[in-house]
Every structure is written in structure tokens, then in C-alpha cells.
Specification:
The chain is of the alpha/beta class. Helices cover 33% and strands 26% of the residues. The structure holds S-adenosylmethionine.
Length: 195
Amino acid sequence: MDWNHNTHYHAALLREVPPRYGRALDVGCGDGAFARKLASRAGRVDAIDADAAVIASARDQSPVPANVLFILADFLAYPIDPDAYDFVAALSSLHHMPFEPALEKMTRALRPRGVLVVLGIWPVVTTQDRIVSGAAVVANRTYQLLRGPDRVTAPTAPPTMTLDDVQVRAAQLLPGARVRRRLLWRYTIVWTKPG
Ligand SMILES: C[S@@+](CC[C@H](N)C(=O)[O-])C[C@H]1O[C@@H](n2cnc3c(N)ncnc32)[C@H](O)[C@@H]1O
């Protein structure tokens, strides 16, 4: 499988997933690499993306596990029942959408005690960002030597919200969420919906 700054964190994100669960939602699933991994432990995975080309590519990569449904839709407009999912993931897709409405919709989709995981992108703005980014450049070169060039096929967008802002707004919307800076220009949010 292609290596990139998103797949690099798949293993860490999967550690937040219960060993077995019923339904999972992958928001902005791209070519479906993470949805396929979720499928090995889920009853059913709904993987949504607004881009027709990546959904076609996800459906073309066989085999598509029988319990994965790739859905071409705008997540914000797609009807989703409240409390429908045990696990919701958004990998490098939240910054394509308005932050609060998208997070609120993800939290509504989760059942009580369900888990939300966001892999986000931080822009290089502060001195700390620049220091970490310098280390990331070195680490990235090393990973590229070991794993080949990083490759992303899905549509990308530049992040605009600083990590400080993400931390403040996530604390308001998702009380108790764990927000963590990651090396390769990524952060993670992990949140369990109160029971
Ligand atoms: C940078 S890609 C990440 C794809 C994938 N999650 C990954 O880790 O490789 C962001 C994806 O979010 C999708 N996206 C952006 N806005 C969306 C929306 N409103 N609803 C559904 N998908 C959206 C894009 O089409 C794109 O495939």
C-alpha cells in the first residue's frame, strides 16, 4: 500500500478502535485505505467522500470487503441517523469542511460511548510549528528513503486553522477530548461520547 502522511498514522488510529464493533463511518474516505482496515473488525463500514473520482477508485480496488459501502456524497448534506455509529473517523478531511458543523454532525452520528478519531493537519504558523516542522522534514526524508515517495490520490486542501485554535475549539465542542500534535504535520483528536 502507498505510504503517505495519513497512512503513516493508521496504526496509531486503529489502536483507538474497539477490537470488535458494529458500525463505523469514515468521513472523507479518499481511496478507502483506512475503511478497508476498519472493515476487518466492523459489522459494517460506511465510507463517504464527495469526490466522484476517488469513490470510483475506491470501488475499483478489489476486493472491496462485503461490509464496506463507499458512498459518493457531501458529508454535510448526507442524511445520517443520530447515534448510528460506534466509531467515526475523519482522516485529513475535517479541514475541507466548516469545523464546527462538521464536528457536530460527526458527534451526533456517534452512539453514546462511541469513539471519534480525527487526523488533522496543522499549518506551520508558530515558532513551535516551525521547530517541529524542521524535525518533520528530516523524518520525512528518512521515511521516503525507506518507503518510497509519499503519494496522495484524493483531493487535498491547505489547512488554515492553527493547532492552538483546534485545541480551544475542540475543548468547547468535545469536552475531555485528547488533542495531540503528531510529527508529520498532523494532529489527532480522540474523543469518547459521554454515555
Ligand atoms: C486529503 S483527502 C484525505 C482522504 C483520506 N481520508 C486519506 O486519509 O487519504 C480529503 C478527502 O476529503 C474529501 N472531502 C472533502 N470535503 C468533503 C465533504 N464535504 N464530504 C465528504 N468528503 C469530503 C475529499 O474529496 C478528499 O477525498
